[in-house]
Amino acid sequence: QFPFGRRLPCDIYWHGVSFHDNNIFSGQVNKFPGMMETVRKITLSRAMRTMQDLFPLEYNFYPRSWILPEELPLFVAEVRMMKDRNPSWKPTFIVKPDGGCQGDGIYLIKDPSDIRLTGSIQSRPAVVQEYICKPLLVDKLKFDIRLYVLLKSLEPLEIYIAKDGLSRFCTEPYQEPTLKNLHQVFMHLTNYSLNIHSGNFIHSASVNTGSKRTFSSILCRLSSRGADVKKLWSDIISLVIKTIIALTPELKVYYQSDIPAGKPGPTCFQILGFDILLMKNLKPILLEVNANPSMRIEHEQELSPGVFENVPSPVDEEVKVAVIRDTLRLVDPQKKKRKD
C-alpha cells in the first residue's frame, strides 16, 4: 500500500473509487473508465430498455422501469392504460434515486400520484420500477443475492462469475405491499445498510444462518426442497452475460476515449456487484449493478451507546477473500510469463 503514490510502475493497480483517481500509464488497473456512470440506475435502465425493445424475451429479467422526471407523464399514462385493461391489477412501484446507494431515498408507492414531486425529484432524478410482489422467501423473509462478477476484458469480452455470493435478508417477515405496510423498510428493502439498524438483525458466526448468509447455503436449502438449482444457476449466468452485453457499447466509448488504440495505457479489469432477487418461481430478476461493491470483511458492533468496534464477519470473509484471491489469479501478469 502506497499512501502517496508510487514512483515505479506496478503490474497491478488496485485503487479507490473510479478510473480517474490516479494517473496510471501501464500495467493493469482494477477499474474501467466510465463504469461508475454506466451502472447508475438511469443509465442501466436505458441500456436495458434498448435491449428489451430489440429482444423482449431475452431481457425479461429486468423490471418495467420509467425515468423521472422526464417520463412521469408516460408512467402515469401507461399505468392508467394497464389498469383499464385489467381492473384487478393492483401494482406496487419502487422509486429509487439515480445516484442513491445503500437504500438511501428509496420508497414504495401504490399509485403514480404518490410520487413525491417536491423539489427533490426535479433536482434528483430517479427510476421508478414495478415492485416484485412475489419474491422467494426463506424463513418467511425476503432476501436478495449479491453476486461478484469479474469483467476481465472488453475486447475480447471476458466475464467470470464467483461461485458463491451473499444473501442479504430483510429483518421483518414479508407481507405483500399494502397501504399500511408500504413504509416498513425492514420488510421490503433488502439493503444491508438499512437492516443493520433493525433490532432484529442477526450477526451469525455461521454462514448458514443470520441476516447475511452465503448464497451457497440458500442453494443447498432449495436443492433439498427439490428445486432445480442447475437451471437457476444457468438463468443467473445468462442474466449476468446479457446485462454486461447491454452495458458494453457505452463502456467501449469511455474506454476508447480514455485509452485510444495505439496510445500506451493500462488494461482494465473490474469486480462488479450484481444484486439479484429471486421470484417465487425461482426466476432471477436484476435489481442493480454496483461498480464499487464493498469488500469489507468485518462489521461494526455497538459496545455501548456511541462506542463501536469492528468485529470479523465470517460470511463476508468466506465469500470476499475468495473473490479477491481468484481475481488476482486471473489477472496475474506473471502467469503468462511463466507459461512463456
TrEMBL record:
Keyword check for Protease: no
GO cellular component, one term: ciliary basal body
GO biological process: microtubule cytoskeleton organization
Keyword Ligase recorded: yes
UniProt keyword terms in alphabetical order: ATP-binding, Ligase, Nucleotide-binding
GO molecular function, one term: tubulin binding
Name of this chain's protein: TTL11 polyglutamylase
Species of origin: Horornis vulcanius
